[in-house]
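Might you be able to check the C-alpha cells below? Thank you kindly.
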Amino acid sequence: MLKITRNTFDEVMIPCYKPFNCLIVKGKGSYLFDSNGNKYVDFTGGIAVNSLGHCNKGVQKVIKKQIKKLIHASNIFTNISTLTLAVKLTKHTDFSKVFFVNSGAEANEAALKLARRVAFNLYGENKNEIISFGHSFHGRTLFSVSVGGQDKYSDGFGPKPGAITHLPFNDIETFKQHVSDKTCAVILEPIQGEGGIIEANPDFLKTVRDLCTSHNALLILDEVQTGVGRCGTFYAYQDTDIIPDILTSAKGLAAGIPIGSVMTSDEIAKHFSPGTHGSTFGGNPLACAVGTYVVNTISDKAFLNNVKAKGIILKHSLEELKDKYGIFKEIRGKGLLLGAVLNEDLQDKAGEIQQICAKYGLFILTAGHGVLRFAPALNIKNKTIKEGVNLLDKALADFTKV
C-alpha cells in the first residue's frame, strides 16, 4: 500500500510551495485535522476560498446530486447549472453578462484581454495602456502577474507583456497626472489582499472611476478575494459609490470547487465574439451548481449582516491583542478580511508568528510585508472565533517572551 507523508511532498512535488510540516487529512467547518490527529482552528479559509467552511453539508448535498446528472459537457453545449449561476450573479450585481473560468488569475486574464479588445475595436491599437497599482496582486499567469504591482512575482519570467504602468495606490494626484486617452483599462482591488489588506480610499476610487469614464478607459475591479460576502456585502464595490465596467470573481464563489467569473455589461461583452476567448473547463456544471448554492446562501441579507457582526467581533479581539502585546501598529480590513500590521521593527517576523500559531493549533495567513491576515469561513461560529483568538493570544505570548 502506498504510504503518503509530508515528506512525499519534497520527493514528488515541484517546490513552488513550502507547506507546514504536517499532512492535512480532514476538514470540518472551521477546523482542520492532520495525519497525527492534531486539530487546528482555521483562520485561513483556504485563503478566502472555503466561504462556507470545510465539507459544508449543503455543498456536499449539491455535489452528490449534480454528479449523478452532469459533471462536464464542454462549451459546445450549454446547460442548466451554468445558466442558473449566471442568472443569479446578474440578479445580485449591476452586470448583465457573465463568462466563467476556473480561477482568479484566469478571470483577470480574461478581463484584461477583454479590455484590450474593446479598446482595439473602438479606438485602434494605440489605446493599449493598462494601469495597475503598487502592492496589487492579480494572479500568476504571465499577463496577470505582470499587471500585478509586485515585481518579486514577475521578475525572471521576461520578456514581460508591454504597455503596463504601475502607480502608487491611493495616490490621487499621481493618477490624475498619468491617466490619458492611451489608457485602455485600470485594474484595482477594493482591498488589496496579498499586498497587505490595504483598503482603497473612497475619494481615490471616485477619482479613478470618473477619469476612466472621461478617458474612455474601462475600470476593472478585481474582487477575487473581496467578493462573495467576504467584506460584508455581496461584492465589496456595493459598499462604495462606484460601479466598475468589469468585475472579476473567484475564490469563495464555489466554496472550494475551482471557479472564476468575469461580469460586465451587454455593450462591453459583445467584443468577445465567438472564438475570441474560451475555457475548456470554465462554467462546468458541477462548479456552477455549487456556485449557485453558495450565491443563494451568501447573498441573503441576514447572512451578510452576520459576516459584518463576526468581522466586528474578530477585529475587536485583534485590537485587544494589539493593546496587550504592543507589536501591532494597526488592525485593518473589513468584514472577515482583516490584517494585523506588525510594527516597523517586526516587519520580517510575520512568517515566524504564523509558524508559532500553527504550533498552538491555529492556522493564519500572512500578507504583504509584515501583516498577519485573517480570512476565516464566513459562517464561522462566534465560539470558534473566540477559540482561535485565545490560541493567537498564546502564540503571541510565546513570541514576545524574553
In short: The domain at 58-298 is CATH 3.40.640.10 (Aspartate Aminotransferase; domain 2). The CA atoms of residues 360 and 394 lie 7 Å apart. The mean pLDDT is 97.
